[in-house]
Write a structure and sequence with these properties.
4-stranded antiparallel beta sheet, Isoleucyl-tRNA Synthetase, Domain 1, alpha/beta, 585 residues, Gyrase A, domain 2, 4-stranded parallel beta sheet, 13 strands
């Protein structure tokens, strides 16, 4: 809210090179907020922190915004805001929001989810899918043009094995249906046949290898079966996306197969330009700055010694396409952390080739692992990866048990809907509230708790406000409106900020837009989770200290309007996280 003004003051006081200083803003017991910017600047500008703070305050333009500015401690700046200014902002049509200026909006390609055809989506896919979808929602809300890309694994050597297995069992067999119901079982059956016949010259493994050649050569029958395999897998992916409330559709799929026809030309171009060379029979690039343990340059293999192509080739074709054809200003790869070295080498090669110009930002949004209670990567008792659908169904079942016990008066249909919203929301929030590049322990009891920084806690705060507005008879007036004007066209109540708890809640509401912009800048959805959790906490304090339904006349109407604004922010914020807001809890 005031950070841009503080940054402008820093630039005015010390020079433009210091404008990027990111001041720390936090509540203060002596004022509305406390700003810590001078500490970081003091050594750089050669001044004691309090003197640096004094220079910042002298340059601050806060006319009509603050009634008090004070330097405290070793160099903190305490600000007390003008109550009238707070009320004016709160009563604006869209308080606290700051859409991007048109000139700053970008065309952003986001690569996320990326499951493999004929394989089960496991818990490892949860984070790439959930984090990616939240980022695209935030970017779109702020005005960026976002292009979703689901880079599914739908090409390569394993498909010879899968196609041959499909042809042997028949399209109408129960085993074929496993592609939708249990993809891993289908894949494992094909793999077992392949391994068992590895030494048989005329066996399944030999025929599977020939199928790869036929697929890559465009054989009609083989290609038709490949299309059916992909179509069946899409049905499975879409069931997961529907359960999770993910915005990916078939239109967003851009699998490995999309780039197959360009790979030979890409390799030839890199070789002709001297960027790639043959090493141990394979065509490789050696991007600067990447060395192995022996100190030798590390290769990025773009054509194998047998003439086949790997992930490096496809990823180079992908990034070239996203810049040239999709016109990306920014490319985000929401991919597991172990892929960091590979992606950095791809990006470095693409920059050397001129396919990724300096004007385009490419970022690996690293995704950490999901751990079990033993601190190791979450697996089933058998040691296999946990199936994502089974995990989501268990979350809903656990939420249903809690709701059945706590809200038996709700109808069967209401309890079913609420259980799905709370169970899925709990899983997604637990994931999103953790830094995306860190690991976290998957714990249903903690996820579904109604206390602490959890999805159900934030959802409950929203449901509680709905109940308050419903009891007051004003829920319909405030549902779905542009704040300040009701659905019927009448002006909503004006919010007045008098009590300290009202003031704290109001100031946090006004930080909503700044929070979204910070998520856009840092690509960290957990910042939005923290904002919503703190908003729910501040609402609870406000409701405990400031009577709403028992207040009279204009005070009651003002506080109901404030409640409605909190509900709006909680609902909007949860929606940007991909989480639904229950009507009842």
């Amino acid at each position: 809210m005031v950070v841009p003004r503080v940054q402008a003051a820093i630039a005015s006081a010390f020079g433009e090179e210091y404008r990027g200083t990111d001041p720390v803003v936090r509540p203060s017991q002596f004022a509305d907020i406390q700003i810590n910017a001078a500490m970081a600047l003091a050594k750089k500008v050669g001044l004691p922190p309090r003197d640096a703070a004094a220079r910042i305050v002298e340059a601050l333009d806060l006319d009509g915004i603050c009634t008090g500015t004070e330097i405290s401690g070793p160099g903190f700046i305490n600000l007390t805001f003008d109550g009238t200014w707070i009320e004016e902002l709160l009563n604006a049509e869209s308080p606290g929001t700051r859409p991007l200026p048109a000139a700053e909006a970008q065309r952003v390609v986001v690569d996320y989810s990326s499951p493999n055809v004929a394989k089960e989506m496991h818990v490892g896919h949860l984070r790439t899918t959930v984090v990616g979808d939240s980022l695209v929602k935030v970017l779109e809300a702020l005005g960026d043009t976002v292009i979703r890309q689901n880079h599914i694994g739908d090409w390569g050597t394993p498909f010879g094995m899968l196609i041959e297995h499909w042809l042997e069992i028949g399209e109408d067999s129960p085993e074929a249906a496993l592609l939708v119901d249990d993809p891993n079982a289908f894949y494992q059956a094909a793999r077992a046949k392949f391994d068992a016949s590895a030494t048989d010259e005329d066996g399944f493994a030999t025929r599977a290898r020939l199928r790869v050649v036929a697929l890559q050569g465009g054989d009609a029958e083989t290609f038709a079966v490949w299309q059916r395999l992909v179509a069946q897998s899409k049905r499975y992916f879409n069931a997961i996306y529907s359960m999770l409330g993910i915005s990916l559709t078939d239109d967003h799929i851009a699998g490995e197969s999309s780039y197959d026809e360009h790979l030979a030309q890409l390799c030839q171009e890199l070789e002709d330009r001297g960027i790639a060379r043959i090493s141990d029979g394979a065509l490789c690039t050696f991007p600067a700055g990447f060395t192995g343990r022996d100190g030798e340059p590390m290769p990025l293999i773009i054509r194998k010694s047998d003439g086949g192509y790997g992930y490096g080739t496809t990823d180079l074709a992908t990034i070239r396409y996203r810049v040239r054809e999709l016109g990306a200003n920014r490319v985000l790869y929401v991919v597991g952390a172990p892929q960091n070295m590979h992606l950095r080498m791809v990006m470095a090669t693409a920059r050397e080739a001129g396919w990724l110009p300096d004007t385009v930002e490419a970022v690996h949004v690293q995704i950490g692992n999901v751990l079990g209670e033993d601190g190791k990567i979450l697996k089933s008792r058998s040691g296999a990866p946990v199936k994502l659908m089974a995990l989501l169904e268990e979350a809903v079942d656990r939420a249903r048990a809690v709701i059945d016990a706590g809200r038996p008066e709700l109808s069967e249909a209401e309890r079913a809907v609420t259980a799905r919203q709370v169970g899925i929301g709990a899983v997604k929030y637990a994931d999103l509230s953790t830094g995306h590049d860190t690991e976290y322990v998957f714990d249903f009891d903690r996820m579904l708790a109604l206390s602490g920084n959890t999805g159900p806690y934030v959802q409950y705060a929203a449901a509680r406000i709905r109940s308050i507005l419903r009891k007051a008879g004003v829920l319909e007036r405030y549902t779905g409106l542009e704040f300040g004007v009701s659905d019927g066209g009448s002006t909503a109540a004006v919010i007045s900020v008098v009590e300290p708890a009202e003031r704290a809640l109001a100031l946090h509401l006004l930080e909503y837009g700044a929070t979204l912009h910070k998520v856009r800048e840092t690509l960290e959805p957990h910042r939005l989770c923290t904002y919503l959790f703190e908003l729910a906490q501040l609402f609870t304090s406000f409701y405990d200290q400031c009577p709403v339904l028992k207040s009279e006349d204009s005070v009651r109407e003002s506080r109901l309007a404030l409640c409605a604004l909190v509900l709006r922010r909680l609902s909007e914020g949860l929606d940007l996280l991909g989480i639904e807001t229950p009507e009842n809890m």
